[in-house]
Amino acid sequence: MSALAQRPLGTDVSHYQPSINWTTVKNAGVSFAWAKATESTTYTDPYFTTHVAGAKGVGIYIGAYHFARPSSHPNLTGANSADSEAAHFWSVVSNYVKTGGTYLVPMLDWEDIYCTNQLSAATMSAWVNQWCNTVSNYARGNGAPGIKPVVYTGAWYSTPSATYSGLTTAVTGWPAWIAAYPSNPNPQTGGPSSSYPWPTWNFWQYADTNWSGGDSDVFNGTAAGLANYVIGGLGPPNIVSQPSNRYADRGDTIKLTTSATGATPLRYQWRLNGTNLAGATTNFYALANLQTNHAGSYTVVVTNNSGSVTSNPALLTVNPLFTPVFADNFDINSAANWTLNQSSADTRIAFAYNYASYGIPSAPNSASGTTKGVKFEANVSANAVSALSISPVGQSFVGNYRLHYDLWLNANGPFPAGGNGSTQHHTSGLGTSGNHVQWTGAAADGVWFATDGEGQATDTSATLPDWRAYVGTVLQATNSGVYTGGNQPNVRGNGHPYYANVFPGGQTAPASQSQTGGLDGGTIGFAWRDVVVNKTGNTVEWFIDGLKIATVTNATFAASNIFIGYWDSFASLSDNTNLSFGLVDNLRVEVPTVAPTISAQPLDLAVKVTSNATFTVTATGIPAPAYQWRFNGTNLAGATAAGLIVTNTQYGQAGEYSVVVTNLAGALTSSNALLMILAAAPAQFQSFALQPDQSVQLQFTGDPGATYFVETSTNLVDWTALTNLTLTNASAAFTIGAATNDPQRYFRARSGP
Questions:
Q1: Cα angle at 460 between 457 and 461, to 5 degrees?
Q2: Tens digit of pLDDT for each residue in 2-12?
């Protein structure tokens, strides 16, 4: 066997080995080690930091382990729990669980002989999962995402027996370290006789003494494989969280992310359609004010001194434009506009609810920072499954459209596991009649979806998972092709890796709620989320924060309303119902925009001077278009209706008139319409009379409404303006004052100007 293929040797140590010559250990071929850090909720190994420093000093990868005491702390969360033991462990080791190519992932030592059969195998397994998840979340917050603690045990303890309850396959998502001591172990070719409940082992403790005075261990792989257990990895970079395909509207902000391991420092370069993006050199790339030119295939190249790796492409789709046809921001009590359907009186709804008292910020689409929405609660006091939903009164939506709103899911802690009864689901969908509650306990209709906030439904549950798609009352199966994440048995659970890139976890409740802990990866609670349920033809898609969750094809609809709701599908009562609720704000039903079209162009006109000219245009679009009339290419102030009336036309207003028709989807300019100004009929003087006061009165006829300019001359060459008159009927009279001594005087009247 070549040196490269040799299984790496290791050791584990504790205060029982107070003095270790780590150089001797290194020379014996040991490449990795774990040192005991803590036990229970109070004990700290006094030699932990000494062991870590010694191993690091000679180049041995070193990790920290915790000795579990479920016999003393049987709860999963709260006091005397897996969480409290994890918190104690983290308080000691947080500086040793970080990237840099030195530290191994944490390990849980699972062999409490005082915990016999008082806890079931399922409870023991849940304890292990709780501790590992909590530590993993702590690590994520410490800049080390994706860590999976190793579980150390022996088949004597992990296999159900008359003495010990054992473990179930629920723990097999964590790497296994199995203790088994054959009489003549061969660490290079042998292995434990049983690794129950794991199908195989990752580490094997094959002897209880070695070069360090501690135990002898071996890794089931090569040195290259061992790098997967070094926090941050070794050698070339490895992408552990691929960037996800995303969908977003124009003007939105979206962030593409990746997570990678490897020898530090890691360097990043994002690309769009294969071209480097200037300045995009971190593990995320944020895009603000999205436009259509941002759509395309994004990749990120991660490099270090040992090599490089390119991510899978993430396709960013910039959605076509939509416009609302129904909306409610819930800033006022709009209950009269909604039909409320309840499974029982053990549900509550509050319109125009001010959620600021829970420390919840204004929803992203709220105007002027308002903090009012509609609040949903279910299973308030009865310890029974219940649901409620609301649909707008008298609404019918047909064709292509989407339901779009802001969502906040709150839950009772502590987290990540949540308190008793913490798993409750928000629901929404379309194609419903709107006259019954949407849940599986009644005649639900249409296509609808449900998700919880803290992800503590069983990932592989056949009936009550975290992520759910329904057609009527039928939950869509994991292998149906409906779920975008794939067809795996856990694709409806928050633990499926598809969700972790966009929802990495770690969210915490607002400080004013006085809750502890952060949420698991793949969860959407404690943050405002952008939710879209989109119908195109017979296809319905579900998106949250631009990540497509599910697609139902070939859907049929017997009704045409929408709904939003809330559902506690578990009978267990929340241990703090005040903190268990869902909020919806800024709900819109939107339809695709249609660019303007002109079906009737404005027509040429010829009118007499001073009369009115009326232009019209017939245009359609979604939303209804706006208008801007122009004269010779220049906008006319205030001319923003479908028609334009030019009053009292003058010769200077002759020219080309057009209108620009616009909406969200585009703009269109009409053809030019020519306005011709015709001269008024010539004036005809009818009489000339000397008045008793020696003034002279003249009377002439012309076109009603026309303006005539009267001028005077003594020689028919030089003319002087005398007055101007607008005829209100067919004739007008005017007086020019006292007669003069001019031997002669002439008058003329002409249409203006």
A1: 60
A2: 334 589 999 99
Residues 371, 510, single domain; the answer is yes
The helix/strand/coil state of 22 is helix
Please determine, for residue 1, whether its predicted confidence score (pLDDT) is greater than 60.
no
Long-range contacts of 361-366 (CB under 8 A, 24+ apart): 361/528, 363/406, 363/408, 363/528, 363/583, 363/585, 363/586, 364/406, 364/528, 364/530, 364/586, 365/406, 365/585, 365/586, 366/329, 366/406, 366/585, 366/586
CATH number, domain with residue 629: 2.60.40.10
535 and 630 belong to one structural domain: no
Per residue in 599-617, pLDDT (tens digit) is 999 999 999 888 899 999 9
pLDDT at 57 over 90: no
Let me know if residue 168 belongs to a domain: yes
Residue 489 preceded by cis peptide, ω within 30? no
- Nearest CA to 240 among 182, 289, 295, 300? 300
Both structure tokens of 447: 């296509």
Separation between Cα atoms, residue 271 and residue 480, nearest integer Å: 34
Output helix, strand, coil percentages for the chain, rounded to the nearest 5. 10, 40, 50
Exposure string of 102-115, with b = 16+ CB inside 10 Å and e = fewer, is bbbbbbbbbebeeb
Residues 662 and 576 in one domain: no
Distance CA 42, CA 32 (A): 27
Please say if the pLDDT value at position 231 is more than 50. Answer: yes
Asked whether 134 and 416 are in contact (CB, 8 A), the reply is yes
Shared domain for 395 and 342, answered yes or no, is: yes
Helix (H) or strand (E) holding 428: strand 425-432
pLDDT at 443: 83
Among 652, 678, 704, identify where a domain stops: 678
The pLDDT tens digits of the residues spanning 669-725 come to 999 999 999 988 899 999 988 888 888 899 999 988 788 899 999 899 999 998 888
Q: Does residue 388 lie in a domain region?
A: yes
Q: Rounded to an integer, what is the distance from CA 74 to the centroid of its chain? A: 37
Query: Cα 162 to the chain's mean position, in Å?
Result: 50
Instruction: Mark whether 96 and 203 lie in a shared domain.
Output: yes
Q: How far apart are CA 645 and CA 308, in angstroms?
A: 69
For the stretch 74-124, pLDDT in tens is 999 989 999 999 999 999 999 889 876 679 999 999 999 999 888 999 999
Q: Residue 53: helix, strand or coil by DSSP?
A: helix
- Chain position carrying tokens 């690309």: 271
In a domain, 2, yes or no: no
* Bridge pairing between strands 401-410 and 529-536: antiparallel
Domain that holds residue 256: 238-318
Question: Which H, E and C letters describe 136-175, residue by residue?
Answer: HHHHHHCCCCCCCCEEEEEHHHHCCCCCCCCCCHHHCCCC
Which of 279, 296, 318 marks a domain boundary? Answer: 318
**Reduced to 3 states, what is the DSSP secondary structure of residue 294?**
helix
Residues 295 and 327 in one domain: no
Two structure tokens written together for 682: 């010539």
pLDDT at 145: 86
Which active-site residues does the annotation give?
A: 12, 109, 111
Concatenated DSSP letters for 558-618?
A: S--EEEEEEEE-S-SPPS-GGG-EEEEEEEEEEEE-EEEEEEE----EEEETTS-EEEE-E
Tokens of 468: 């759910």
Distance CA 357, CA 513 (A): 9
> In this structure, what CATH number is given to the domain that contains residue 201?
3.20.20.80
CB proximity list for 685: less than 8 A, separation 6 or greater: 698, 699, 700, 747, 749
What's the structural domain count of the chain? Answer: 5
Separation CA 617–CA 665 (nearest Å): 19
Assess contact for 408 and 365: CB atoms under 8 A.
no
Task: Using DSSP, state whether 669 is helix, strand or coil.
Answer: strand
